Fold these 3 entries.
Entry 1:
Amino acid sequence: MAPKANTSKTPWQDSLESTCHGLQIAAPVFQIVSDRRGGRTAWSSRVTVYGVTHDARFWYDGKNVNNAKEDAAEVAYKWLNGASSNPSSPSTTRSAW
């Protein structure tokens, strides 16, 4: 069972939503993902903006799912605003999801 995500917005999520609105594109769509790691489950997020899906850079404990959404929102916001991503980022491809 997935942890209950905190529905309150945070600065990156707000900024991303505002940017999408300003660009007149669809609002961001978040997805929570999990990965079983030993006896625990790690949680992360991805967000789709303008047809492109952006993964959060890190994995979080279940009580910090909103941090995962914030992480993904930051990645997407920087992409929308033309900031180059760091190729050495610890982001992983989750093609098996």
Note: The chain has two helices and three strands.
Entry 2:
Amino acid sequence: MDFRFTEDQLSIQAIARDFAQKRIAPVAAEFDHKGEFPLANIQEMGQLGLMGIEVPTEYGGAGMDSISYVLAMIEIAAADCAHSTIMSVNNTLYCNGLLKFGTHEQKLAYVAPIASGQAIGAFALTEPQSGSDATAMRCRATKQADGSFLINGKKSWITSGPVAKYILLFAMTEPEKGARGITAFIIDTDRAGFGRGKTEPKLGIRASATCEIEFADYHASAAEVIGQEGEGFKIAMGVLDAGRIGIASQAVGLSRAAYEATIVYSQERKAFGQSIGSFQMTQAKIADMKCKLDASHLLTLRAAWAKQQAQEHGGRFSTEAAVAKLTASESAMWITHQAVQIHGGMGYSKEMPLERYFRDAKITEIYEGTSEIQRMVIARNETGLR
């Protein structure tokens, strides 16, 4: 296996690292404290090509590959998880879905402004009563005589919902068909019939705005259907496979930041006349942190490589994506926990970023498929049993 990165991959990694350390890291704590959406930074990230890394240049993106996306995501997440969450939704949930299933005209209209950072995209699948069980959705899109649709219902926990211009929405068009009765639509949030609820007060990723959205006789034309009618569930699941690689990357970046801070602190902090990093229990924690971090990193790169192979030769990469997401997210939770423990009282204080890392890590085990769902996906794919 060749572990060398290409010049293009190293270039986007360097761009992301430079921006993350100079523009994001210095303000991350402030944005987290205020729960304020970092619009100016996100727009600049779009100008740098970070909001549409795998989007072809003709649609406003950087025209790069999945490995490039992982490398860039890790750098942004190492500075702030909230910024990387916005980046992940734009890249893998919104843009990826439209690139795979949208028409050329739809890509020009709805991908280009998002990939270039001129506007924000969102993905709406979850509802108040249906999270992991997406087929239980109640949001309805009723077909009209002219081929258009009237959409009514609610969606919840919509990342970037308060600021999104366009949203990739999934709604029931034929409820009696279950999963085969779901259709995907592009939503223009400036249109009548669309409304936003309150911004959710979250434990972590607080600068990433999240809200409930509502539809009351929202009119969507036939030209705003993504893919074919009834293909929505297939589209959503395929998009989530890619999204899980983004969350795995986020977890790796967060873990790396916590690990690196711990190494420095263990060398500098003295107790009983010596550095705490010389104590065997501290060393054991550091060794385990390193192993979990490296395993997560390599599994995430493997998933990105599998995605590229699937794009070029066909096939699925759902198992590799689920393995990466499960391993990286649970490792992030464990690593940040140990990092706080090693830092002691300072790890619990907002004077250092460790407590933010700890709060941010939890969401990686929940969104885009909980750890329980990842285990189910992996086991079902391995055994062929349902």
Note: The beta strands are 121-124, 140-143, 149-159, 166-172, 182-188, 194-199, 210-220, 225-226, 270-271, 274-275.
Entry 3:
Amino acid sequence: MSDDMSAEPGPAAVPRFERGTDGPKVIVAGADGSDASWRAVAYAAGLARRQNALLAVVFVQPVLGAAAALGLPVAEATAAVAEHLLSEIRLGVERLRGIHEMRWQFVTFPGDPYSGLVRAADELKADAVVVGASEQAGHRIIGSVAVRLVKAGRWPVTVVP
């Protein structure tokens, strides 16, 4: 082994993305307006604030094919939910201004909740995903978004009751 420290670094020294190297940089929180999702957003906000990470609140607008086929205004309804969520988040951030400062963004797009959260977490290079526990009884049988995210094993997932 040589003691020569002046050698040029090789290709292995090129920096590359690595999750969680110095604490989380991006924390994704799923929001759908349910009480459990608001608790998840609040928990994720606390994590992001303490870690100086970006909080990305993600609302995936469900695509309701049957309702759309019947001519119901699905896109308008889900867009209204997204606007309501964003206004609630802005209110919360404004209440904490000067007390707790944090970086955040709101992301929304149509899709199914599981695939949408996976897409958002991948595109944002999330270090962690936080979601609320499902409040629907049927999810105990067929599996919830939270269980599917945990099984995917791509990021640490926190499920907030």
Note: The helical segments are 35-51, 65-69, 74-96, 113-123, 139-142, 145-152.
